[in-house]
Amino acid sequence: MASEPGGLSEYIQHHLTHLVPHASKGGFWAVHLDSITVSLVLGVLFCLWFWSMARKATSGVPSKGQAFVEIILEFVDGQVKDVFHGDRRVLGPLALTVFVWVFLMNAMDLLPVDLLPWITEKFGIGHFRAVPTADTNMTFAMSITVFLLIIVYSFKAKGFGGYMHELFTAPFGKHPLLWIPNFLLNLVELVSKPVSLAMRLFGNMYAGELVFMLIAGLFSAGAGAAGWALYGAGIIGYTVWGIFHILIISIQAFIFMVLTIVYISMAHDHH
Amino acid sequence: MLPNGTLIGEMIAFAILIWFCVQFIWPHISKAIEERQIKIAEGLSAAERAHAELKAADTKVADEVRKARQQASEIIDKAQQQANGILDKARADAIVEINRLKAAAQDDIAAMAQQAREQLRERVGALAVQGASKIVQREVDASTHKALLDQLAAEV
To answer: Using a CB-CB distance cutoff of 8 angstroms, which residues of chain B are in contact with residue A117?
Structure first.
């Protein structure tokens, strides 16, 4: 497929195209059905998995599955406990959901980039991107939710007046002339949180996906001995990048979770 | 345009990746899980053991206390018996001693009385001689009349 000129860029272009409803190409309602489907399926799987483990949970010697879930839970709860000193009944599950869900969505990157599109093509769907977190819609959806939670927690912890007071008087001072600079600075700080949160995850996953596609380009580099050599190099490169990517998807899921906890605990703390 | 050699190559790489996970990543997670299971199982069994040990110790302590109490009362009984014995023996000894002392004292009294009697006798003899010599107005030679005087004294 990449034998004709521009084959590789066409290949990548094809893989970077989201699945959208036919009727609404380009518009606001051109929702990325692939991201939605994969993220929902993974979210449901995560819920079912942890729910079934929680239902079978025993206070005695745990089964292997329960022990695994307990290790994840303890790890996440430990992270929350380190940063957030308050009622963990909301933030704990939130952090767990963020961590596991983001990890699962990131892990879709490890699947062969052509596997899901190949399957969906059998059902007549040409474009299918498997990694929801390589889609800005998905990462911003999560980071904006976190942003709203930051606002809610700020109001809850400080009250409307207290929060407004903080927005207009910190960090420079109480003088009325400083109200506007204070507010602008706080606005930048506030908005930068969801933007950096979403862009960091998206950037890492998108770049990772792109590297997989570039390496996959080696598989159709040419014919003959050189072609086969490149084919072998492609397999090695794809494997090595995949192994390295296990680290990246874990770290990105971890960072997203930790920053969510940090942002919300910052909103929760009085200044 | 799908599937082709690209997908096959990716699948081979994916298989190697899975093999890598099975070989190098999953064992660590599996080990952590098993260690956790063992730790919990050990903790639970240790707690159970401690519980049983506590129960056993409790019954043992009660047993020991009961035994000690019994022993103490036995010792007290024995001590009381012994004290009674000592008291009886002391009483008997004291009576024997008293009797002995009484006998000795009586002997002494008898001896002293005898002595006093002798002395009295002698004195009476001397007085009689003196009296007689005054009566006869002449010196009576004591030695000449000793036999007579002794006889007199013995009669007193």
So the answer is: 2
